[in-house]
Amino acid sequence: MGKLKNIEWRNIYYFLCYAVDELQYFVPKDINYENIQGTHDLLAELLCNSFEVVYSNGYLKEYRREEIVTDKPYGSIDIVKSTQTGNFGQGKLVCQVDTLDTNNELNQIVKSAFTVLIDSNKVVNDKINPKLMTKLINYRRVLDDVDNISITREILNKYRDIPEWYKPIIVVAKFILEEWLALDKTGTKRLLYLDDDNRLGWLWQKFLDRFYQKEMPEYKVDHPNLGRQGSRKLLPDIVLVNTKSNKALVTDAKWYETLENISSNANFNQIYVYTDKYFEQYKTVTTGILLYAQSESFMHDIEHEENFDIISYEIGVNKDFELIKQELKDIANRFLQ
To answer: How many C-beta atoms lie closer than 10 Å to residue 112's C-beta?
Structure first.
């Protein structure tokens, strides 16, 4: 098992698109992949790219109606209220005017996302590309007049119907604020502060899950709770089920920069327990698979156990994305048909 070298970040973007449906609003050719060497770079590029669209088209500001009292009237003059409030006697009038303002909740969400990426760069090991970091800082300065707010899930879920031009940047901002600040599967660390290997592992698993749901609807995608082993819950990443053939593929997704120092025994033991427990509970024709993301594709020998088979398979993630998709389909069909 070798080392995952020269990651094709265009494919990582495609993985992210499966994990986050709304990223369909992006045009991939607009993304500068030369600046991207890590997941933080990818998010920074997406955030800056979408901000440039909003900013260059003048969409940051919106009209707000407000009431003013002035001796130089403009807008809609309210004579009745001017008289009732005594302003008329002082030579002033109450006016309803429309002003352009950047301080709205959508921009507050965007500013929070910029702040999270900028502040995280002080503590994470994989630093954001300096060119992208400069962009992040400069674009946040454009939002200096926007209030800093505490982001809650209620605020993030408040906006369902938003203008088309705002959708890309709000989608990326929500992803950073919801997913990147969420806890990892152990419930102890936030994805934002994990190393890139762990973040890519999370994305690889989420991509596979959504890929099979979207691309292979003939199979059921399941996430069974198989009980416990000591204090540890037995929760396989994905189980693909062919209800017609009564076959199941218990999948454990793995992402390592290098597999040379990884305990293959530990991974094998994990998938063995998952597959054994699944067979015990569901009595289907069951195969367990360790699905590694690597530079090149390679299938290891099948391990034949008493009641099931186990296979380790390395998926080459640096080739054309369509080939990756086809390879994943071929693997599923091989063991489920």
So the answer is: 21
Distances in whole angstroms, Cα of residue 249 to Cα of each of 84, 154, 167, 212, 217: 76, 37, 37, 12, 15
The residue type at 158? K
DSSP H helical segments within 143-223, as ranges?
A: 153-156, 167-178, 196-215
Strand partners, 258: 3
Give per-residue pLDDT as tens, 267-303.
Answer: 888 999 999 999 999 999 999 999 988 877 778 888 8
Containing 42, the helix (H) or strand (E) segment is helix 39-56
Q: Are 241 and 284 in contact (CB under 8 A)?
A: yes
Domains, the chain, ordered by start: 21-59+104-178 (no CATH), 62-101 (no CATH), 198-336 (3.40.1350)
The first and second tokens of residue 19, run together, are 């994990």
Q: Which pLDDT tens digit goes with each residue over 27-73?
A: 555 677 777 878 888 888 889 988 988 888 787 887 677 788 999 88
Rounded CA separation 210/191 (Å): 19
Rounded Cα distance between 82 and 116, Å, is: 46
Strand ranges for 36-175 from DSSP E: 62-70, 76-78, 93-101
Distance between CA atoms of 23 and 250, rounded to whole angstroms?
29
